[in-house]
Task: inverse folding
């Protein structure tokens, strides 16, 4: 997380945004190079990255490349997991993993633990994914397999961004997304699990409206909005379209990370 | 809110989405016809609506057309508003209005009341907008003016959709958006305050993943994602770009409203 407060001029709103799902991403396996995968898919789609492009990756392919597979058959739940698992009626081995990936439980309900993930955000079941989660060559007798979130999505985004910026000699950003189930509202939306290269929160405080009145609280969660937009074309289940290009934004390079989107728990009225 | 559960086939994910801000929307005043304003802007932009297009309006222009202006100078705060105003250090006249627009207070903090709005959603200060809020011809001695949310955004969306569908002889949807400040996360995102014509929540429960495993909890908040995407091009302050076209989705007509996005307070772990 950077100390720098981005100025309003760091981010400009274009009048047209294209949100394009890039086809042809193979099933990603442990050890695969995401840079090669992204470049290969862009080349097949005949896309040259331009200044201001945002490359959006579903966290699932980052997790798979990093080998974040866990065989629940190999997990022995501890006392806490056994107790919580009974309380919320959930596989105690999965609960053990949720607890290991978290720094605190926020709420409990049948089938779900709402936790503060070790990465700092609050969501259901620590973002652990139990669909499409088996690694290549998994023994038929193994599993069930689940996939944990990437170890450090901001670092993964920054590494990929550095390579893409060098390859295309231009200023691009990378956002790694996951699905978020929100308080108060039904359904999930995409959110920025990791980010590199763009002002993640667009700080409009101090800007004035058309009548010259100073806006008192206008910070726009740009990276989350990008993630939500990408989610509309990325699909979620059998589509297998984990790579999206968002084109039409204009922003100065930024060293903000997704951490800029985390509300300080001390300021959080719902923590 | 409809009883119908939309099937997975009601909504298809296109591979490319265009999110385009439509210029040339004048300052909307009380009594203006939103249909005429939208059609005029589309015609100047030489856009014919197509099947699957979503017309997205910032709630502000709907409120202005409906004359939802309030002169705080005319408001006498009651006892509750005086007490709450002192507690959160906020103009008691504005607090009075927030209380009138709400059915309950969820949280309180300096400068903000998080309330359940009469329309059912939870957000800060009942969505009352204190910027760009004066009506045409407001006396210089009047005000400060604020703008409340539209009376029935779903009905406004449905009325506009009916006229657009007739005018363009095609299946379009309308989403009316506002900004939402979320628990846990910094910055606002667009959300669907009103909707008509599209499956608002895309129910993927029962769909299977690529390995045939049934997904147990995948409902996508499509209308909120559309609102978030539109927010990226609509700007928030002096841009004055309240009209956005989202093109590239495919959906069957639906009579769902934005109410489908409201989590039942009884199921809400953060209510």
Result:
């Amino acid at each position: 997380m950077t100390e720098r407060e981005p100025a309003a001029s760091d981010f400009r709103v274009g009048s047209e945004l294209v949100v394009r799902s890039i086809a042809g991403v193979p099933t990603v396996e442990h050890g695969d190079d995401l840079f090669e995968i992204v470049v290969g898919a862009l080349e097949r789609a005949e896309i040259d990255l331009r200044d201001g492009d945002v490359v959006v990756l579903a966290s699932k392919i980052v997790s798979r490349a990093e080998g974040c597979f866990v065989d629940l058959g190999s997990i022995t739940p501890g006392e806490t997991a056994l107790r919580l698992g009974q309380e919320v009626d959930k596989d105690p081995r999965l609960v053990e993993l949720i607890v290991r990936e978290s720094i605190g439980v926020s709420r409990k309900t049948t089938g779900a633990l709402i936790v503060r993930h070790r990465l700092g955000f609050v969501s259901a079941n620590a973002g652990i994914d139990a669909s499409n989660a088996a690694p290549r060559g998994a023994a038929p007798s193994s599993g069930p397999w689940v996939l944990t979130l990437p170890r450090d999505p901001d670092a993964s985004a920054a590494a990929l961004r550095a390579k893409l910026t060098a390859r295309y000699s231009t200023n691009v950003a990378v956002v790694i997304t996951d699905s978020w189930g929100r308080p108060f509202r039904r359904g999930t939306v995409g959110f920025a699990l990791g980010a590199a290269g763009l002002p993640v929160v667009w700080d409009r405080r101090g800007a004035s409206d058309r009548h010259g009145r100073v806006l008192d609280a206008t910070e726009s969660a740009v990276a989350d909005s990008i993630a939500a937009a990408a989610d509309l074309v990325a699909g979620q289940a059998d589509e297998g379209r984990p790579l999206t290009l968002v084109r039409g934004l204009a922003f100065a390079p930024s060293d903000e990370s997704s951490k800029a989107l985390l509300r300080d728990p001390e300021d959080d009225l719902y923590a």
